[in-house]
Amino acid sequence: MTNELLILFFIVGIVMVAGGMIISHIIAPTSVNAVKEETYECGIPTKGTSKIQFKVGYYLFAILFLIFDVETIFMVPWAVVMRELGLIAFIEILIFLFIVILGLLYAYKKKALVWE
Amino acid sequence: MIQLHEIYEVIPLVLIAFAACAILVIEAFSKKGSSAVYGFSIITVTGAIAASFLSLNKELIIFNQFLRISNASVMFSVIILAGILITIIASKNYIEKENINFGEYYSLILFSVLGMMLMVFANDLLIIFIGLELMSVCFYVLAGFLRLRQKSNESALKYFLLGAFITGFILYGIALIYGISGTTNLAELYNQKKLFTNYVFIIGFALFLIGFLFKIGVFPFHMWIPDVYDGAPTTLSGMFSTAGKIAAVGTILPIILALNITNFKLIFSVAAVATMMYGNVIALAQSNMKRLLAYSSIASAGYIFVGVAAMNEFALKGIAYYLIAYTFMQLGAFIIVSILEKKDDGSRDYKNVDIDFYKGLGKRNPLMATFMTIFLFSLAGIPPFAGFWGKYYLFYAAIQANLIWLSVIGILLSLIGVYYYLKITVYMWFHESTDLVTAGYEKEPVSRSGIFATSLAVVGTVVLGLDPNMFFRIFKMIAE
């Protein structure tokens, strides 16, 4: 029984992917013009080379933002069911926050928050 | 529901996790070049080893059935921690020499240990996955820790790309296993009957297995090992080849034994033969010591898989013994290479890792040459040392499982290995130093921490070799 399901699974998988591509290739209207060939179809034309050096500070800020973004994702589900889970969950979330704060402390001491 | 008292059962894990976070902060607040972090990480790992013994002789499933404490898992975690302890002790001098003395080094090592221990304690496929990723991500960063050296970067990138690709295999495998069995819990999985009559499950399990074969470095998935071990900082190459492999073996072996998949026996046997053959034969032609040891670690993965193919009660015993012996000898050999390596002079390559450098080492540095000889003899499987008993137990397990052809081939192939291990020994004691070496050679005193780390490995190799049953007495396994 499951083997037939497996074959079906593969067939459906292939049809879903390949079918979508083929159908869109057939029915989609096509128009070719000079503007469409540009890198940024809807923006100002680029000047100079695109291989410029970024300030590494952007990268650090992005990573720090990500950490606190993820922290929120963990905090909200806990807050919703806080009463049912009780004390242990509270201690766990404190440990979690403690680890995040250690990370912030580390970033602070390493001067990752200073914008030079 | 999680009980607070369950924390007591996982003190080693908590210690390591806490220390890994704390090291970052301690490092940020301490002066540059201080060794506070070094001491702290040694104390933590020692404490974790001691605390592991508290969990001996228990059979518990804790934390919502996510972790399982058993003698086998405690044993694997102690072996891993022993390897890590030796690595950390030897590291201080090395990272100062290479100008990479950052506290993050120790923190990353401890985070990777946390991952390894989660893997061996896991009772759930998801915990295994989390542990594996924690270990692997730290390994990718550590492989590229010598940021200014091209080879190190190359090694990190290769390891990362291949490792990330293999992660997909493992996840897809877990998904298929869950799809068929309806659970990711290992204990529930073991209780289900007739899983192996289902092709989807076999595909899922095979994908899951492939991920671990990659981490262990078994034949068709071994390509990354020489390049990564060659390029990574030398102490860490030693760690990857011991602790990293042990974690993977320690995770997959109980699963293989519990599921009792006898129809995979032939596959494992063929993989073992191919791995031993590949590792031993290619190692013959190596002129770089780190690559030679990398191929020797592939060959060792082959010996371990002789035991895996046997799949009986002797196999677990033999593999466990081989792993602890392998930790001491392989790590010891890598650490000696790291000690003898030349100080960083801004070059793109590692200096003094050619095997020609080892010519006449017996005269230049008798202590390190003696230690290296012990490790190489042990790796070759010469009797008084632990490596001999490791191979003995593995081949014994294969004979008990009626795989006599496998043990015969294994013994013949390990004889090839004797050649290249003894070649280095002959170079060290019976050859004169080459002009190239003597010309640029300045006698560098070997640091005390280096001597201490290698002595620990020597003591392990010799003591386990003289009294092989001691190890089993400690972990209360079947003693002969």
Strands side by side in the biggest sheet of chain B: 1-2
Q: How far apart are the termini of chain B?
A: 42 Å
Spell out the helices and strands of chain B N to C: HHEEHHHHHHHHHHHHHHHHHH
Uncertain runs of chain B are none
What is the 3D form of chain B? globular
Look at the structure and give the mean pLDDT of chain B. 88
Largest sheet features of chain A: none
In which range does the helix fraction of chain B lie? over 70%
Can you tell me about this structure?
Helix content of chain A is 68%, strand content 0%. With 116 residues, chain A is mainly alpha-helical. Chain A has 2 domains: 1-29; 52-116. In chain A, helix 2 runs antiparallel to helix 3 (82-109). The model of chain A has no long low-confidence stretch (mean pLDDT 83). Chain B has 480 residues and is an all-alpha fold. Chain B has a domain at 266-480. Chain B is built from 20 helices and 2 strands. Chain B has helices at 11-29, 36-52, 71-97, 104-121, 125-143, 150-181, 186-191, 199-216, 224-231, 234-259, 265-283, 289-310, 313-340, 361-364, 366-380, 386-400, 404-430, 435-439, 448-466, 469-474; strands spanning 60-62, 67-69. A two-stranded antiparallel ribbon of chain B has the order 1-2. In chain B, strand 1 and strand 2 form a beta hairpin. The interface between A and B is medium-sized, with 13 and 13 residues.
